[in-house]
Amino acid sequence: MSHSTVDRSRAEAKTATETPAGSDGPAGSGKRRREAKLGLRPRFRRDRTLVLMTLPALLLVLVFNYVPILGNVVAFQEYDPYVSENGFVAIFHSPWVGFEQFARIFEDSAFWDAVSNTLVLFFLQLVLFFPIPIVLALLINSVIRPRVRAVAQAILYLPHFFSWVLVITVFQQIFGGAGIIAQTLRQHGYEGFDLMTDPGIFKFLVTAEGVWKDAGWGIIVFLAALASVSPDLYEAAAMDGAGRWRRMWHVTLPALRPVIALLLVLRVGDALTVGFEQILLQRDAVGPGAAEVLDTYVWWNGVRNQDFSYAAAAGLVKGVVSLGLVLAANKVAHLMGEQGVYKK
Fold first, then answer.
1. Using CA atoms in the order 147, 148, 152, 155, what is the torsion angle rounded to 10 degrees?
2. 198 vs 195: CA distance, rounded Å
3. Which pTM does this prediction carry?
């Protein structure tokens, strides 16, 4: 297939997107330069309404995401919250132990088991879960009738609003020892089964629960990216003789590539977080050997065993490794020609 018409239409669509209608390129760039020369106070007076609208969100992020980072100092202490009536003041009275907590972590075999389970779950979800929203977005985008598309989206979105308690209950009623499938098999003379307490398939079960709950919600970003694709590209590809599959390969997927790269970078950075509440609810059913991940490991040692310094050290290790994964994945995205989380 000749790609000259497709490339020309793609370039025209990109130019139309970057240059506002009714204004030429140099004029638009001159306007941007004049805005860049404005000082901080004039820009604040101009955009003060928007700034004030973002203050509540910024305050929430500051209080719940950045202020707790200061508490990581207890990872270098033998923190005892009972040396003072105030837990915050107790930080100043707890003895410093340096990197002793980190040495305990790396010598603990349970920690490495949790790391292993976390990485296995991450790779399973990356291979089995990550592509599904892309496929669903392509299928929904191919539906011509708006009403059918709206109904399909509503059905796929609905499980996202279920709590993990409800999701696990639904799976228990289907795949549990007293579930519908097991009871049906027993009624017909076969031996039943209980997938919900089988440690061997627990990781696949967790992945299936995540797919059912969140795959439909994940297609929103991809549908938004598909909505920005110029129809001229599809028309040009059709004029060159491209069928539906060739148009998807040469037009649709290249349009999704920047979004896929961005979400993949974020997913890699979130590799060590594979679902705390979901796994904690099923931890006792299959045992910690199969269900212990880093988040539940930190919770068990910090909240249940009240070894706060040890749990803080484990959480700090997880945060540093996650940051390194984000930077590495973003570098790979740059090498592939994509922007990633931030530009070079």
1. 60
2. 5
3. 0.76
